[in-house]
């Protein structure tokens, strides 16, 4: 019963399309050449969701995000000038090739159960003959959670540079500078077109003098002197190399660097270094797990875990989360949420799952964190800390034959193996905490950080992976605490 109201669990070997999982997951796509996008303005989120579901059930592809993949934009009750101005501001590469249509085309197509032929009456005509070469800069919020961001980054030349600077500050434990560059990168990822001059960034939030100077240099010379210096810096390179090993954080990397280590081999051979089991596994599978994971590989792992979980409990619910849930094509690991409506049985389900993976011979490493979740201790003091749900950090073996299209080929790495190692995280919240855990594990990190900041500063509420509280510390949706004698009642769950 409960399962039916959640995101659909993963199923085995079904036709799927990148970026179109979620509600359409598992439904056969009948018209792959048509990719719909429903404009939420005027239509409203509820009706949009309903229409999207209807179309998906009829085999249409409906994109949640407006990207260059969309072929048909459907709008209801929007005036042509406003709609077209909005579409131009989205930074699409070839807007003129997109069919911009009235809801009547959608309704006719739903009636027919197929995309009906386009007629003049269906089209919403552009009143300007040509699209402006410089789309107007959209106003962006200071909060990442209030910005629309697609997976397409039009300003990679700047954001890559900011990432190097952020990482370098992170290695030096300069947290505020590190965060400033991560914030700036996040803002630029929301800009729907390439920035051609620093003036165009004048109205953007979170860009300080330092970030603007770096941008100016890149625009003028194609690179930033400061960034180039960091990239050539021995310490930066070494810390980057050491932290690329699973289980090695910035502090350990710094210690190794100070101790004179310069290669991974040095670290392995130094008798004074005692590696913990996570680091041992990290070294053993370093090549494999430093290579990105493709969406097809993530889906294959989803199939394996889902089948294994269902073999343990028919009520098991498994959902892909993290970067892949946001539509990313590649990730550094694969994140899953596992739960069950059977109260208090989540952790045992996870332990059984790990055990079964071990028996199948595909478990290469497991670091299990037992649940420390106690609703009576909520909300916790440290909001950036790891959540309290039971979770396992795994390394799994994935075979070529299990992946649609096979494993990714890595140049210069043909050792004849038919498998690769992949990092997988599985977290098991109790079902009544599932929504908050899903929200928290979907990311991105900046989105989550700003969502919490937004809740705290704008709504005087506390949000984390376990729940949402108002500042009087009353748990939303939970029954009144026995100690609650002041007559105040719990608030209603948001969204
Ligand atoms: P990841 O580090 O896996 O990031 O954490 P990602 O967005 O999926 O990116 P790649 O592709 O793997 O590099 C996923 C989300 O889970 C949250 C993080 O905040 C992040 O947004 N998370 C991670 C937690 O809430 N708690 C944790 O203990 C770990
Ligand atoms: Mn991830």
Automatic annotation (TrEMBL):
Residues 26-123 form the BRCT domain. GO terms for molecular function: DNA binding; DNA nucleotidylexotransferase activity; DNA-directed DNA polymerase activity; metal ion binding. It catalyses: DNA(n) + a 2'-deoxyribonucleoside 5'-triphosphate = DNA(n+1) + diphosphate. GO terms for cellular component: nucleus. It is found in: Nucleus. Belongs to the DNA polymerase type-X family. This is DNA-directed DNA/RNA polymerase mu. It comes from Merluccius polli.
């Amino acid at each position: 019963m409960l399962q039916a109201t959640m995101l659909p669990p993963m199923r085995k070997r079904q036709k799927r399309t990148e970026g179109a999982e979620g509600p359409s997951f598992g439904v056969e796509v009948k018209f792959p050449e048509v990719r719909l996008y429903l404009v939420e303005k005027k239509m409203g989120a509820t009706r949009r969701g309903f229409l999207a579901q209807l179309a998906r059930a009829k085999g249409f592809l409906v994109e949640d995000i407006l990207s260059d993949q969309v072929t048909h934009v459907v709008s209801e009750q929007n005036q042509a000038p406003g709609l077209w101005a909005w579409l131009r501001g989205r930074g699409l590469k070839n807007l003129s090739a997109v069919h911009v249509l009235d809801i009547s085309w959608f309704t006719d197509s739903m009636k027919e159960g197929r995309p009906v032929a386009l007629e003049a009456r269906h089209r919403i005509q552009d009143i300007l003959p040509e699209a402006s070469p410089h789309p107007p800069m959209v106003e962006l919020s200071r909060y990442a959670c209030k910005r629309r961001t697609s997976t397409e980054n039009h300003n990679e030349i700047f954001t890559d540079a900011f990432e190097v600077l952020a990482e370098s500050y992170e290695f030096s434990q300069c947290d505020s500078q590190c965060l400033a560059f991560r914030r700036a990168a996040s803002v630029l990822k929301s800009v729907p077109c390439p920035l051609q001059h620093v003036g165009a960034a004048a109205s953007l939030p979170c860009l300080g003098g330092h970030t603007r100077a770096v941008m100016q240099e890149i625009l003028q010379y194609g690179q930033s002197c400061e960034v180039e210096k960091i990239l050539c810096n021995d310490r930066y390179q070494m810390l980057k190399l050491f932290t690329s090993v699973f289980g090695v954080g910035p502090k350990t990397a710094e210690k190794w660097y100070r101790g004179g280590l310069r290669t991974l081999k040095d670290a392995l051979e130094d008798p004074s270094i005692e590696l913990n089991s996570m680091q041992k596994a990290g070294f053993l599978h370093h090549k494999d797990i430093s290579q990105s994971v493709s969406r097809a590989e993530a889906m294959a792992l989803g199939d394996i875990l889902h089948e294994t979980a269902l073999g343990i409990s028919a009520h098991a619910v498994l959902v892909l989360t993290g970067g892949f849930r946001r539509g990313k094509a590649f990730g550094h690991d694969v994140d899953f949420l596992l739960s069950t409506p059977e109260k208090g049985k989540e952790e045992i389900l996870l332990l059984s799952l790990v055990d079964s993976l071990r028996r199948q011979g595909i478990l290469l490493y497991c670091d299990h964190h037992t649940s420390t979740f106690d609703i009576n201790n909520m909300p916790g003091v440290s909001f950036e800390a790891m959540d309290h749900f039971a979770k396992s950090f795994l390394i799994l073996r994935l075979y070529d034959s299990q992946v649609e299209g096979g494993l990714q080929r890595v140049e210069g790495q043909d050792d004849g193996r038919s498998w690769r190692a992949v990092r997988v995280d599985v977290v098991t919240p109790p079902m009544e905490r599932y929504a908050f855990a899903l929200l928290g594990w979907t990311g991105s990190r900046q989105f989550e950080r700003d969502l919490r900041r937004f809740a705290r500063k704008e709504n005087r509420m506390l949000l984390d992976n376990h729940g949402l509280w108002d500042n009087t510390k009353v748990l939303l949706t939970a029954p009144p605490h026995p100690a609650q004698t002041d007559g105040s009642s719990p608030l209603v769950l948001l969204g």
